[in-house]
Every structure is written in C-alpha cells, then in structure tokens.
C-alpha cells in the first residue's frame, strides 16, 4: 500500500466518502487499482475506512476498521450509518456502538451461525458480483452445482450479502438472493443492529424495502440508535417510502434513543402523511388502544416465521379445479387463518413455457390490494409444485351458483357487475387485461361480494387444452376479436363482461349451442337474441357490451368510466360500491372440516434443489 494525497482522489469520492469529519491520510493499493476490485483506505483518527471503487471512478466507503480491534470482532459502523439529509459532519463520523458487546454476541450466536474466519472463494465471487450489480453472475454463483456461498456470511461491519444489496438498492439481486439462498436471514443484523430493511429505508430504496417486507422482513426492528426503518425513511425525507411503510401498519409509537418517534423526525410534508394515516386507521380501527393494551397486543402476536413453507399449512378440502392445477382450502397451523391454495404443476407450466405468465401475474397480484380482487398472501414452491396462498372466498364461484339457480334477477347481477367493473378498472389502470372473465373465475366472499380470482394463466394460447366437457362453455367466453386472432386490447374484458351479464340474467351465454363450430360462427356472425323480459337498460347494456367491433364497444373510448356511466347503472354510488356497501345476495356458507392433512404429506416438502427452481416465485405479504 502506498500513501496518496487525498486531493488526487477526492474529486472521485462520492458524497458519503467525502463527508467524513476528519480524514488523516489516504492509502491506495495501486495494484488493485489496476483492476476493478480496487480497495483503498482512509484513516480517521485511529480508524481506517475502506474505500471501494464503484462503477467508473467513483469511490465509496464500505466499512471501517478500528486499528486496535480485531477485524473479526470489529464493532465499527459501516458507511450505512450515515443518514442522508442529516449531513452535519459529526453525523457521519462513525462512532463505535455503545451497546453491550457480550450481550450482542450472545444474541448473534443464538440467531446466526458464526461467520467463517475468512471468506470462501464463492463468498468473494458473490460479493464482487453484487458489487458490480451483475445479476447473471449472481445467479450463476448461487445456483452453481459446486460449493455454494454462505447465505449469511458476515462481511465487514457484519453486513450480509442481503445488507449489501439492500443498501445499494439492487432489487433484482436482492430478489435472487432471497429466492435462491434458502436459509438466508431476512432479519440479519449488522454491527449497528441494522437489518437489510433499515439499510434500504435509510437510502430510500423503496422497491427493495417493499421486496423485503413482502418477503417477511420485520417491520419494526430497532437499530443501535433505536431507529426503526420508518424512522430512517423519515430522516431521509423519503415520503413515498414513508407512505408505503405506513400502509403496512408499523408501530408508529416506537421511540429511538433520543426519545423521538418516527413522526417527530419527519418534515412537514411527511408529518402530513402521518396525519392522514392516523385519521384513516382511527376510522378503520376505532379509538386507539392505551399503551398497555398495545403492549399486550404486541406480546400476544404470534411470532412470524422467517420463511413461509408448505410445513405451515394443512389441507382441509378441495375447492375447485382449473386447467393447470387444483385449488384447496388450507389452514395456517400457526395462525389458524383459512386460505385458498392454488397448486400449479411445475412440469406442465415449464414444459409449456408458461412460467413467465405465472410469474408476471404473481408479481402483479402481489402488488394489488383491491376489494374485489383476491389477494395473494404467500407464494412458495416444492420440487414439483408452485403454490399460491390466496384469500379464501367461502361463497363458492358464480358458475356453481348458476348451475344450481340457473339465472339471477337483474338486481343481483347488477351488484356483481358493479364490483367486477371496479376490479377490471383497477387492472386496466395497471395495463393488465384480465381476458379470462367467466363465472368460474368469480368467487364470493363471506358476505357474498364478487371477487376476481385467477392469475391469468388462461391467456391466449394457454388454454388450448380444453377438456371436452367444458369446451363449449369456454368458447362462449371468447370475444370475436380473439377468435379472429388479430390481437385484442382492454376492450376484450368489456365484451366478456357482456357475456357474463347475459349468462347471469338469461341462464346461458349468448349465441350458445353445443356444436363447437356453430358456436364459433355465431359469436362472429350470429344474431344476438335477447329475451324480451329483460329491462330496457339491461338489453341496452348487453348490446353495447357485446358490440363485435371493439372500437365501437362500450368502454372503447374511456374504459371503465364509460361503462360506469351507462344508463343501467344510473344512481349507483361507485364510491359506496368500492366500500363494499352494496347489499349482495346472501350466501349459505359451507361447513368446514377440522381435520386436515399436512401439506407436505400431500405434495412433498420444501424445494430441495432437485428440480428446476422457478425464479422470483417466493412471496410473503405483510
Ligand atoms: N380464492 C378462492 N376461494 C375459494 N375458491 C376458489 C378460490 N380461487 C379459486 N377457487 C375455486 O377453484 C376453481 C379454480 O380456480 P381458478 O379458476 O383460479 O383455477 P385456474 O387454474 O386458473 O382455472 P382456469 O385457468 O382454467 O380458469 C374456481 O372456479 C373456484 O371454484
């Protein structure tokens, strides 16, 4: 190592590295500087801070060695302790934490395996792949059949790979680490007691923070200064992140070591977000709990397992069957909560190249939180199956109700239509076409409200393997433009809404005949027959929605807004619909058996690496 003047490099140092309170000297390793893995160091008093090159002549401090502390046991803080927007020079002087070492060591020893003395070749390779934000190398390294990197290896400052990726805001890499490193600790702590979520929040990396929380990261951990991720995002003035964290229901009363809650660290803009959040939760939850009530509620909380896996569920009964798998009623053994579990056959999905559909829809639904769309809570996989754990809708699907009741009165159908229109509106806003609207994909919740359930596997070309029995039923739900195979847009959903409405009030789909070719011909050219007994507005709505030319169809110009303004819906308060205030038809709830079979017994245990892993599948909603 040679001494170099700081000025020779300072122009390349990034904000963090330059914001040191006192830099005594700079040491540069010129050999390393020749290649990409350049390390230099600067001295700050008795501490030596490592500086690392990040893409193209920028340098950042990645950690700190106190010269008289054994690096293995080093309690120096990492660069991540610096708080954006808190740039007093002293805030960046990296103080040694004051908490009891013994205590922390004992906690670490219980929770995490001791880090190996020196990093293995695989650990180093993974470190550099992450540093270079090289996703394909990361995936190669962690999926290699040879020796694997240690998922929770602790680098300088006790930062794990996930800490590093989270701090840098590397979304895809963080996702890959979570997906492929089975025993990864989402809530690992570094020397500052910071978890990856702290670091993502500190740096305002919203998507990484969302990924971590959705993958099961604790929402309220405190770091060495008593700060939660919410405190850190308030300090950083990251208003969207604060807003999002608040939507997950964190504990906003936690005080840091200076006795400040997150809100007290916020600026005016963020304080306003807190006020809106508090108003909303007070309305939803009623008067707030006393401190002691809050504490006992917190204590009573079931501890959240680190990873959700088949182990936690028992299968109670089948609920339905789709083209690619079955849906079962399952119970989470820890919480007692009932869910619908969709099991997809990996081999079928992979062999038909449908993984991308499954994943895209999983990603979309993992972000959607809508009153009339089923929510995805967890996704995991075993060697043979992909599992989606969804809201359980005990009212059954509309196809089953129609097969028993034949048809519904217009008033009952209207409630379902209003609710489905709002669900489609939400999907269209996100540029998603549902394409598979049919009675089988609409389930009823405990109060009888209509909920869309399907993950879009039945997209064009996917559903060619119709079983003979359901063949015509499925064809009846094909729009003319889909049959022509000349491409289709959002309007296809409005056509299918017309088919659904027709079937609900007439008892069979429009143009229906049991002859497949005749049915296809009818959809394209046949005369639309509407029973005279329907109301004028209903007949009008059917005609407008079943318009063959998508450009002339209701909804073609202004999408859902146009459909909502149709005369049939006159007097509907759409905000009340969204608040689930329409009175749906009452449903008899099924009896649920108490006896279940362990999910693992039925479908095999967690993914063991013996088959193809579907990347990016795992998901935990908070
Ligand atoms: N969340 C749920 N709650 C209760 N029952 C459900 C739920 N989701 C699905 N079902 C039942 O399972 C059946 C099949 O589900 P789903 O339509 O999602 O499967 P699928 O494989 O996507 O089918 P396809 O692709 O053929 O439409 C539904 O018709 C319904 O009866």
SSE layout and pairings?
Layout: E1 2-4, H1 7-10, H2 15-18, E2 25-28, H3 30-34, E3 39-44, E4 47-54, E5 58-66, H4 101-111, H5 121-131, H6 135-143, H7 161-168, H8 171-180, H9 196-202, H10 206-214, H11 229-235, H12 239-247, H13 262-265, H14 268-285, H15 291-300, E6 313-321, E7 325-332, E8 338-345, H16 346-351, H17 355-367, E9 376-381, E10 385-391, H18 398-405, H19 410-429, E11 442-444, E12 450-452, H20 468-476, H21 480-484, H22 491-506, H23 516-525, H24 536-545, H25 559-564, H26 574-578, E13 597-598, H27 599-603, E14 619-620
Antiparallel strand pairs: 1-2, 2-3, 3-4, 4-5, 6-7, 6-13, 7-8, 8-10, 9-10, 9-14, 11-12
Helix pairs in contact: 5-6, 6-8, 7-8, 7-9, 9-10, 9-11, 11-12, 12-14, 19-22, 20-23, 22-24
The chain binds adenosine-5'-triphosphate.
Please tell me about this protein's structure:
The strands form 3 sheets. This protein has a 7-stranded antiparallel β-sheet with strand order 13-6-7-8-10-9-14. Helix content is 38%, strand content 13%. The chain has 4 domains: 6-218, Ankyrin repeat-containing domain (Serine Threonine Protein Phosphatase 5, Tetratricopeptide repeat); 228-305, Serine Threonine Protein Phosphatase 5, Tetratricopeptide repeat (Alpha Horseshoe), CATH 1.25.40; 310-394 and 592-620, Phosphorylase Kinase, domain 1; 398-578, Transferase(Phosphotransferase), domain 1 (Orthogonal Bundle). The two termini are 48 Å apart. It has 27 helices and 14 strands. Helix 6 (135-143) runs parallel beside helix 8 (171-180) and helix 22 runs antiparallel to helix 24 (536-545). Bound molecules: adenosine-5'-triphosphate.
